[in-house]
Predict the 3D structure of the following.
Amino acid sequence: MTIYSINLGIGWASSGVEYAQAYRAQILRSLGMPAKFIFTNMFQSENLEHFTKNIGFEDSEIIWLYGYFTDVKIAGTTYKKDDLEATFSQHPTKKEVSSDRKLIRYYFENQELYINASLYGENQEYVQRVEYVVKGKLIRKDYYSYTKVFSEFYAPGENGLQLCNRSFYNEDGSIAYEEILSNEKSTFVFSNKICYGLEELLEFMLEDLSLTKSDLILLDRATGIGQVVFENIGAAKLAVVIHAEHFNEKNTDEYNILWNNYYEYQFTNADKVNAFITSTERQKILLEEQFTQYTSLHPKIVAIPVGSLEQLKFPEQSRKSFSIMTGSRLAIEKHIDWLIEGVALAQKRLPELTFDIYGEGGERRKLTELLTKLHAGEFIELKGHKQLDEIYQNYELYLTASTSEGFGLTLMEAVGSGLPIIGFDVPYGNQTFVCSGENGLLIERPKGDDRSRIVQAFADSIYEYFTKFKKADAQQYSYNIAEDYKHEKLVERWKDFIEEVLHD
């Protein structure tokens, strides 16, 4: 028996989907159930292992679609500069190291060639990527972990330099298979098979896994691959995990529903699904009602939180007075700018307020500029990406401006550290973890997302919490909610679910 979880990509700023998978990995380990997490995207900027290890996966748990057909293992980058230099046909005449020591350039007697090596590691002693440049034109890139994993070959095209071929290697350096790229389409060539496109490559892998009725597929993301998975799981059981809002409320009436396009294929083919998994009871009940109202299908739907708490966290010393935090990707949909403006407005009435923002993302520059504009840098700080396990309990209040949250891992972690929460009265995470008036406040979301009204509502709610709430009672209420999400309870829920589905 093996439980396979299928996803597309992962990065340094992982989404809730990847963190949900990492929590699941912990639970399956504790149950002693073999688990594999399949990632189907191409990874060029970074070794996949660095991303997966960063959030707690074990290397043996990871399957990379492109690496599956080789004998190269998932592992960290440990290929040394000396190993690279030993492959050179001649000694470099000169070496140039960048100021940050992350790049070394090799020059040779033949002035038409130079080699760039991107370095990795605490002391930049390992090689992650190598570029070969001839007459100023890139011709090849090699990618390494503990050995060479794959190479990319480039050639001039109509629109400049174009990637035309990839070779994927075995540990001994032999070519396992090749990918030929033309007009953004890929053909994968093996010694005994040709796969026309990524979908056929995935199909080839699923066939090779030889799935049985004792195996369970958990489909976490299905964009572009859903149909392939549905059609090639053999006798295995299939469960679809719902990580976000599953329908468009504005375009739904009593006669028709517009499913979220991430889930439309899965819902349309619900008769082929052994179970759907939501992360909250609220979403489960709503989805059951919608299947009854809009379809003739009645699939099995279960609610299993996507995360768990090893233990509740209590402060070792008094929480910092008037301290607020949030933890989030710095992405436009998280609306951190609303929170900054709300706190800045509230601070005019509560000068002691401080607000720390944890996380990284593409909006950092805009948020930095906003802090400067509001002259708020003295009491609002962008703290960057940090492990928050031992941070939540130092604060008095948590803020979220997300307008939709399938679950909200940071919300769970916040209440697990006794933090009250202020956020919108929107499905499903906020409504699951916040009882308005008890352990925080839920704000009505204005129509059209009227910015001034939203900012004022957050400012007023912050002021109300710090001036009217009994903090100790609010904190205890959060701890009480968190009890249902302790690790041992989630382990039992997963155990029961897996046994039920596999023996259905």
